[in-house]
Task: structure prediction
Amino acid sequence: MLHLSAAVDQPSAYDAASYVDLARLAEGGGLDFVTLHDSFARSGPDALAVLSRVAPATSRIGLVPTVTTTHTEPFHVQAAVATLDWVSRGRAGWWIDVSTTEGEARLFGRRHAASADTLWQEAGEVADVAAKLWDSWEDDAEIRDVPTGRFIDRDKLHHVDFRGTDFSVKGPSIVPRPPQGHPVRVVDATDGPARRTAARYADVALVHAVSAAQAAAVRRQLRRDAAEFGRDPDGLRVLASLLVDLGDGEHAAEPGHGGGGPRQTVQGPLYRGGPVDLAELIATWHGEGIVDGFHLTPAEPLRDLERLVNGTVALLQHRGLFRTFYPGSTLRDHLGLARPANQYAVTGGAS
Result:
């Protein structure tokens, strides 16, 4: 199954309506999910809040905001992501990221900037405790019995009693278990420190690669590391990340793109060409098992997303390589990922 996603970042947009328009456009093409990047150094609206507004205006597409684990409280992060899953009825994801700069650290005043290795270890611990907190309510913990006044079955709420390197969480969560069990966790696994965290905790790993050989090598490493962590490698989706410029006619004729692959730029791997050549690139890399799909960032949001959906995606659908409708209702359905069992209900963990 080919997986396609797109970024809906708009640096100058401050109103939710423009994000709704892009998400609906992507949903019309059957894309698995859209992402909205965020950081403490970025001006503009909060990504999670924006996609919470997008949720009721869409019905199928997955919604994945960046939520940073550095300088934030893990308990509140997981609750916010779980709430997005409820608002979207099972379509939430979480792009896990870290904050590495001293300037961002000074915004909070709690500690100095740390190394990438330290921060990604912490991010893994946050991802771990988030899953435990999502499971701290069993699926049938809510009773909602009006005559007796009982709202929850306290025997089906669990303390997680998690202790990490720099934080501890007792639990349980303040939000019932999300519709997906665990909202989908996304990590940009391009850099080494993030790669092990992705292999251990991510459902989707994004990789910046300018060649098929480079993308294939990273995918092999991620799957190998996932197996070493006791995971089924088939439960990890690896998507190649590309900036795509599907602009004017002269771009379509530029050599070195299309079947020749993307080019490295200061912004990352860039594909500049026509929608047809992009479809060929996607079909080739996926057909040869190099990646499980692509995450595409339009150079010009509306223009390039329209050409991506109405050109590239339409051609892939015509060739039978990509879905023409959503077979399920949740982001996990789109990605072909099972809903995780509740670790406390299965093992009978202490409450």
